């Protein structure tokens, strides 16, 4: 910015954090290595599932979030979910061969 300055904190903790946890399965089996991304406005966080298909990430406050799951082979599932101030909500992804569900906790 010409003639001005901006203060940016890298890695700042989220405001009103909500922990997103869940498990991704494919054909009833744990799906390891799936990338789970949760985005809203200028915020985007992601995690990779472990060997049991589990993931955990933290977002900032209530609002409408776009969830996206993807694998290296190019497959992708997506869903937009409105997250309110409730203590938990289930977020579920399904396709003919795979599914994912999770719980948001404040």
Summarize this structure as a short list of keywords or feature phrases:
single chain, 106 residues, elongated, mainly beta
Describe the fold and architecture.
- With 106 residues, the chain is an all-beta fold.
- Helices cover 0% and strands 58% of the residues.
- The protein contains no helices and nine strands.
- The protein has strands at residues 17-26, 29-30, 35-40, 43-48, 54-60, 63-70, 76-83, 88-94, 98-105.
- The strands form two sheets. Strands 1, 2, 5, 8 and 9 form a five-stranded antiparallel β-sheet that branches.
- The model has no long low-confidence stretch (mean pLDDT 75).
Which helices and strands, and how do they pair?
Elements: E1 17-26, E2 29-30, E3 35-40, E4 43-48, E5 54-60, E6 63-70, E7 76-83, E8 88-94, E9 98-105
Antiparallel strand pairs: 1-2, 1-5, 1-9, 3-4, 3-6, 6-7, 8-9
Find the count of extended strands (DSSP E, 2+ residues).
9
Radius of gyration: 15 Å
The main sheet comes to: 5 strands, antiparallel
pLDDT averaged over residues: 75
| Structural class determined from secondary elements | mainly beta
* Beta-strand content: over 45%
Helix percentage: under 10%
Low-pLDDT parts are: none
The general outline is: elongated
Number of helices: 0
- CA-CA gap between termini: 37 Å
- Could you give the order of the helices and strands? EEEEEEEEE
